[in-house]
Amino acid sequence: MRNRFAAGSAAALMMACAASCGLLAHPTSNDGADANNPAGSNPGTLILNVSVGKSILMVGDTTSITGSVGGVTISSNGLLVTSSSDTSVVYVGGPLILARAVGTATISVAYSGYQASPPLTVSVIPRTNR
Question: What is 48-125's CATH number?
Fold first, then answer.
């Protein structure tokens, strides 16, 4: 009886190890990427993709942030959270970006709990008279 119990426990332990050691349907790396997917993303992982209309602005110009999560377009409905690394250079409010002074700022974007990575970078140059 004791040997039968030990053999059953050993078999269960071996099955658990096999399942956790890469024999799963979609093994993931530590960053959540699908280890067997050449594109690098786990089909069950939603990613926030964002872009900015223009990444180089003149002082006083505006542009907008656009993006999507799982194919659904983000909107400014209270779920969009944006911030600037330097508000004296770039002010950001929801999807709107305003260039305030010469310099560079990093814009962090989150939507409905998803964080965009990498953050956006916006450079501001002096206004030229034409």
Answer: 2.60.40.1080
